[in-house]
Amino acid sequence: MSANHPNNVEKDKLIQELGYDDHFHEHHHGDKYQTNFLTTYIFSQDHKIIARQFLITGIFWAIIGAAMSIIFRLQLGFPDADMAWLRPILGHWITINDAGIGRLDPEFYYALVTMHGTIIVFFVLTAGLSGTFSNLLIPLQIGARDMASPFLNMLSYWFFFMSSVVMFYSLFISTGPFSGGWTAYPPLSALPQASIGSGAGMTLWTVSLVLFVVSVLLGGMNYITTILNLRTKGMSMWRMPLTIWAFLVTAILGLLSFPVLASGFFLLLFDRSLGTSFYLSDIFINGQALDRIGGSPILYQHIFWFLGHPEVYIIILPAMGIVSEVLSVHARKPIFGYRAMVYSILAIAFLSFIVWAHHMFMSGVNPFISNFFVVFTLIIAVPSAVKVFNWISTLYGGNIRLNTPMLFCIGFVSMFISGGLTGIFLGNSAIDIQQHDTYFVVAHFHIVMGVAAFFGMFAGVYNWFPKMFGRFMNETLGKIHFWISMIGAYAVFGPMHYIGMAGVPRRYYRFDSFDAFKDFDDLNKFITIAAIVTFFGQILFVVNFFWSMYRGRKMTEQNPYGSNSLEWTTPIDAGHGNWPEKIPTVQRWAYDYGKDDKEFIQQHVPLQEGEEPSSH
Ligand code: HEM
Ligand SMILES: [Cu+2]
Q: CB 3.0-4.6 Å disulfide test: which of 115, 186, 216, 485 passes with 279?
């Protein structure tokens, strides 16, 4: 292209007018996007709209996933209760016996557990959390008009959407959804004849998750490229808010680990439909040896957990980023140990790739190999503890606003400490051999990843709701929601540690034929009731969310919290392109709170005469 090509002339003119090259000119594309309802709201390429799409789809799945857990908790707490009333929803999965009593089919119990895990882990805590906040905050906080590729970004949402449609469909087929657990270990997952759900349900499950991987990769490539290339002038890496660091590292984790999962799933599909034997060997059905030999189900476990462990950090890192940011804003203090926070994120990310076999201590791996995984697993506790220390130090002496986002941040820290501690127990193979596949593990990962990640997400939603919808959520309802969730979470998962240590295994349909577990009937009832109460607490959130979208208190100031980061420099109702005019240039880091007698100094405010750049 020659220098006086019309495009270049226009570009030069723009650079002159605006004093910068902003990579994305609304003047060029703006009207193309804003033409009609379909391109504005459905096939939108605006990252802010895509963020809302991820969030609302995530909320939909959270309701379904949580409702499933209530149904199987009912089974565990009240195995003799009449479930006939669920027939209108669950259809033939509720069997009515001669006495007219309805029972949840054991097959379907496993399907519910499987769907609950899959949906919450992938659709809610991965897509709903990372998809929402990476999309919302990356361009806004680094000062970019949109993602590097708004088109691929849109595709990322639609692949997620297709993936969720396929999964949803599997709920309605006559043989039901997959029922072999969210980890989908073979042979249940590899042999279509293994159980009812191993048939078409499992095929749909795999197809759904392969589509999901595509979505994660499209999203992740965009996040990484955008953060590395589209930062506004002055936004050096060391001036980025911790949210952005967390999203960046999360995306890298996803990019390195999700393809491994996808390839593992392809081998699984081959085993299922082409007669290969990657994961099958020595399988007998009705005394007949299967003719497929040579494979190993342990291979699947290695592949799965090579994603599976980084995946838990793909879920928790964005929540950590959100909490670091929100905690600092509402404590009106700089985040303590900014660089240490970044290095901890990096250390956790690196270590998360070399500990996967701590999920396999019981699968017959060589104990010497186990020792390696024990050591590295326990080393993760060090950067984790650094982060906890820094959050608490940030709170210490702060001018704390105890609003809903802050409450959820504090709740997050509490959950992360509780769940991290039980991780140290499980990380020791000698203890894990006792605890594996008991409710102790269930309690551990629900506290540290389920509840903690949800709390990070809630902190983010309450905090950035005005940025997304121009209105505030109701604080009173928010606080009630927080306290029900906080007390509820410990009431549900606290006792699970106890029954787990007593040896009660996970993934059982009922316990009353085991003398050893009879003593825990009352605890199981208690857990179920606590879960139901907590569930209704979440409904409060959903009501608050949708009500506030239309009726909440209107946002009138651009920067209602007195925040430093750039997202609060855009207009209240920012169009596609975010800043109607020039993107602000960044002069300082994101945490200048309580400096020089000022409550806060936004990132684009120039350094004063003689002012030292903040040390961090
Ligand atoms: C100090 C840090 C941690 C340590 C030492 C640790 C250790 C472990 C170990 C050894 C297991 C395997 C237990 C078994 O199946 O027998 C486990 C399970 C699990 N952990 Fe952690 N963990 C830690 C933190 C976390 C975090 C931060 C998350 C999530 C954000 C997490 C999520 C999970 C999940 C999802 C499982 C169970 C997966 C399943 O079998 O279904 N852990 N943890
Ligand atoms: Cu792990």
A: 186
> In this structure, is the dihedral angle defined by the CA atoms of residues 506, 507, 511 and 513, taken in order, positive or negative?
negative
> Alpha-carbon distance 352 to 379, whole Å?
10
CA 561 → CA 340, 403, 405, distances in Å? Answer: 26, 11, 11
pTM for the model stands at 0.92
Lookup result for tokens 């999360």:
250
- Cα 443 to ligand 1 centroid, rounded to whole Å: 10
- pLDDT score recorded for residue 4: 47
| Pair of tokens at residue 144 | 């970019």
Element housing 598 (H / E)? strand 598-600
Distance (angstroms) between ligand 2 centre and the Cα of 184 equals 16
Write out the two tokens for 375. Answer: 């050591």
Within 13 A of 237's CA, how many CA atoms are on the CB side? 11
Take atom 33 of ligand 1 and give the residue whose Cα is closest: 445
Which residue is associated with the tokens 């690196």? 350
- Ligand 1: atom nearest CA of 313 is 30
Rg (CA), the chain: 25
Determine the atom of ligand 1 nearest the C-alpha atom of 436: 16
φ and ψ at 505, to 5 degrees? Answer: -80, 155
Long-range contacts of 29-37 (CB under 8 A, 24+ apart): 29/576, 30/575, 30/576, 30/577, 33/576, 34/575, 34/576
Q: What stretches in the chain show pLDDT beneath 70?
A: 1-35, 614-616
Whether 450 lines ligand 1, by a CB cut-off of 6 Å, is no
- Structure letter (DSSP) for residue 569: G
Rounded CA-CA distance 245/43 in Å is 28
* Residue where the block lists tokens 């016996």: 97
* Å from CA of 117 to ligand 1 middle: 14
For the chain, first and last CA: distance in Å? 44
Tens digit of pLDDT for each residue in 351-391? 999 999 999 999 988 888 899 999 999 999 999 999 999 99
CA distance 236 to 131: 24
Name the closest-CA residue to atom 40, ligand 1.
359
Q: Say which ligand is closest to the CA of 307.
A: 2
Is 117 touching ligand 1 by the criterion CB < 6 Å?
Answer: no
Q: What backbone phi and psi angles, to 5 degrees, belong to 106?
A: -55, -40
